[in-house]
Task: structure prediction
Amino acid sequence: MRIRLVAAVAASGLVASVGACAPATATQSTQPRPATPATQARADTSRPAPGAGGVSTPNADPFPSTYVVPASRPTLIRDVTILTAAGPTIRNGSVLIRDGKIAAVGTTVSAPADADVIDGRGKYVTPGIIDDHSHVGVYAAPGVDALSDGNEATNPVTPNVWAEHSVWPQDPQFPRALASGVTTAQILPGSANLIGGRSVVLKMVPSVTVQGMKFPGAKYGLKMACGENPKRVYAQRGPSTRMGNVAGYRAAWIQAEAYRRRWDKWNADHQGDAPQRDLGLETLAEVLRGNILVHNHCYRADEMAQMIDISKEFGYKIRSFHHGVEAYKIADRLAKEGISASLWSDWGGFKMEAMDGVRANLAMVSAAGARAIVHSDDPSGMQRLNQDAAKAMAAGEQIGIHTTEDDAIKWLTINPAWALGLDDRIGSIEVGKNADVVLWSGDPFSVYSRVDRVWIDGAAAYDRANPASWWRTDFELGNVPLPGGGGK
Amino acid sequence: MKTGRIGIAIAVALALTLPLAAGAQTIAITGGKVYPVSGPAIDNGTVLVRDGKIVAVGVNIAVPNDATRIDATGKWVTPGLIDALTGLGVSEIGQVQATVDRSARGDSGVAASFPVWEGINPASSMFPPARNDGITSVVVVPTGGLVAGQAALIDLVPGTLSDMLDKAPVALVAQFGDPRSGGSGARGEQYARLKELLDDARTYARRRSDFDRAQTRPFAARRADLEALVPVVEGRLPLIVNADQASDIDAVLRLAGETSVKVIIAGGAESWTLANRLVSANVPVLVRSMNNIPGSFSALGTRQETPAILRRAGARVVLIGNGSGDAEVFNVRNLKYDAGVAVAYGLSWDDALRAITLTPAEVLGVANRIGSLQPGRDANIVVWSGDPFEFSTRVEHVLIRGREVERPSRQDELMQRYRTYPPAYRKP
Result:
C-alpha cells in the first residue's frame, strides 16, 4: 500500500502493546466453529423469520444497498471519439443514454426529440473509470486518527470485519474521484492483516449512508495481504516471518473448510440445532463457495506463486493480485491461471518488496495475455488512473510492446469490472450496459485532458462547467473553501 | 520482436561500463525546436556545446567539423529539469532505515548545522531513473524538526559526491506547520522559537569572540547551529520554510518581514489565498500541482490551480514533484508530468517549463550556471521526442555538463530480462 503504510507503521506500535496483553485470538481459536450456507435463505417455516426471535441468517445481505437509479432525461453525445473497451475506437460517433442504460452507440445514432444533445467535437467518451483498489471512505480526509478506519490491526486474521462499516460517506475524497471520471470503486480494508476483511463496491454518488452508495448486487471481495506489511505489524505477536504468514493463511482456510462442511451438512439435513454462526468463517466459507472474490495484496512474484498454490490447496480462486509490482515476472502464469493483476505504473522502491517495480509492468502483463488493471490504493492516484495507464503505455513502447488505446482503456474499465464480477453490467460502452459514461475534454491518455462530464446510470453526476452543481460533502461546508477543491 | 532503445542501451552500457570520455568535446545539437527558457523558442535551432558549457544557441550557427552531432530534427530541446525539493540520494528504500539519511536527530528540533549532502550515496539506484527522464539537477533537502538542516544542489552526474555537488549549502530548511513535529506544543511557541533562533544567530554573528570566551548570555542553539544560521540572518542563504496553512504562511511572512531573512515557501497548499502578499514580499513558492485533497487540517484549501493563480498574480512559482512519502525518490522522474498537469489547471506552458528550469535556478541563486540554454551556462540539456510534458514523449538524450549521462537503470535491466518468458537468464 502507499499512504496506508504510515497507518500500518503506526498500527504496528499499537499492536505491539495490545499484543502483549491481549487474550488468545477470538476468531481463530481451535474450537470447531459453525459454517454458512449459500442456500440458507430458502424458506424454512419451522424457524422464525430472520430478525424475529433471534435467528439470524448467514449471508442474508444484512446491509442491503438502498441505491436507486435516479430518473434522467435521454442524453445523446454526438460527434465524439468513443473508446468503448469492447472493440475498436469509434470516431465521429454518438452514444445515446436512456433510462440509465446505454441505448445506442455507433456512427449513426438518432436522438429522441426530448434528448439532451451534447456536442462532443474534439472530445472523447469512455466508460466510467473503475478503481478496484481504494481506501477512500475508510481512510478519509483529513487524515486524522479519528477517521483512520482501514486496518483492524488487532489480529492478523480478521475476515469478520467489513469495510463498509468503516466507510464515511462524507469523505471529500469521493467527489474528487467522481470528478476524475471514477464511477465505481472497490473499497478495501488495509493490508496490515493476512486476511483483512470484506471489501465493498461503491458508486461514486452522494449519500448520507454507505448503503446508498453500494452497488446493487455486487459481490463482496475478501482482502488478503502478503509479505512485509503483516509481518511488520505483527512482529511482536506473530506472524513475524513470511513462513508465519503462509501458516496463518492455511490455518484460516482449514477452519473455513470445516465450518463450510458443517453448515452445508446442516442446510441439507436440518438435523438438530443450527451450528453457531462465526462472522469470520462465514466470509471465508463464502470464498470457498465462490461467492466472494479474493483480492490479494502481493508484491513479489515468488509470493504470488505461493498464494496460487494455497488457493489450489483449498479450492478457491484468486480474482486479482493487487500491487503486483513483480507481476511482469510471472505474467504468463497469471494468464494461464486466469488471475488479473491490479497495478500501478510507477510506484515502487519504497520497501524491499517494491524494489523491482517497472513502469512497463501493465503493458508486459497485458502483452502476456493476462488481465491488466490500473488501480490506485491512493486518493490522489485514484484521480489520475488514466495518466497511470498512459505512462505504462509509453514505457511498454520503449521496450517494443505497443499498446493501443483500445487495449489501454480496458485496463481502466472492463478489466477492473471483471475483477469485481461486474463486467456484465459496467466497464464498456455497449448497448444494455449501465450508462456510466465519462466525457473527456480530449484524449484521456494526454496529460492535458480533463474530465468534462460524468454520468452514472444515465444521470448527470458531474459537470465541470457548472461548479454550483458539484457534489460537496458535509465535511467540506465551512471547512474547504471551494467545491471540489478548485475551480473549473 | 523489436529490441527497443533500452535493449540497445543496455548492451552498449554493459560493454562500456566506463563513463563516456571526459575533457574537451564539442557537441552540436541541430535542427530541433529549442526552448532556451531565457528567451523565445527557436525553430530549427542549434545548441553548440564545448567543454561542458553552452557556447552558442540559435539559428545559422556554424558547427565545427570536429563536433559530435546530435540530430534533433523534429525533436524538442530544453534545459535539464530541476527538482527543487527532494530526498533523492539520501533516501533509497524508504522502509529500510539503513538507506535513509534524511533527518538529523538535532537538538530540540534544531539541526541547522546538519549537512544533508554528507549522506548522499552517488551509487543509489534511484539516480538513473531520474536522470534518464531528463532531471539533471535536484535540491536534496533534509526533513523533520523545526530547523531540519542544510540543503544542497547537486547535478545528477555519475561520479563521486564531489563530482555531483553544485552548491552546498544552497538553502537552510525549516518547517512551520504542525508544531508537534518540530518539538513545540503550539504554533505560537513554534513562532517564538524560530524568532529566538534568528535573533540569537544575529547576536552570535556580532559577538563570536565573546561567545568563545563564554561572555554572552545563553543562546537557544548550539554554536554549530548558530553558525549555520548566520548566512540566513544576513540574507546570504535562503530559508526554505515548509508551510501549507494560510495562517502559517502568513506567520512566516511576518517573521521574515521583521528581518532580512530571504524566505522561500515550500508546499504552500493554501498559498493561493495569499498570492498578492507573496508577490509584494517577493517570496517565491515551491508548490505541487496534483494536490486537491484536504488531507490535513493544515491543507484544507489545497487546490490544483495554485501554480496558475500564483503566477497570474506575478509570484515566482517553482513546481516540485508530487511524489510523497517513501516513494518520492522513485518518482522524481515524474516532475515533467506535474508541469503538464499544472498546464491542464491553468498555468501557461511556458511558465510550466520555466517553473522546473529557470525559476528554481533563479530562486536558488544559480541561474548564471543552470536553468536555461544560453552561452556560458552548464550544458545541462535534454532532447525530447516531442512535448516534454506528454506521456507519449520519450527522452532521447540527456547531457549534464556537456556529457551524455543516460545509463540503464535497474528497472531497464529488469524489463529487458523479463521481456520474454521464460526470462532471458533461464534461456540456454
About this structure: Chain B touches chain A through 59 residues (CB under 8 Å). The CA atoms of residues 161 and 269 of chain B lie 33 Å apart. The two ends of chain B are 19 Å apart (CA to CA).
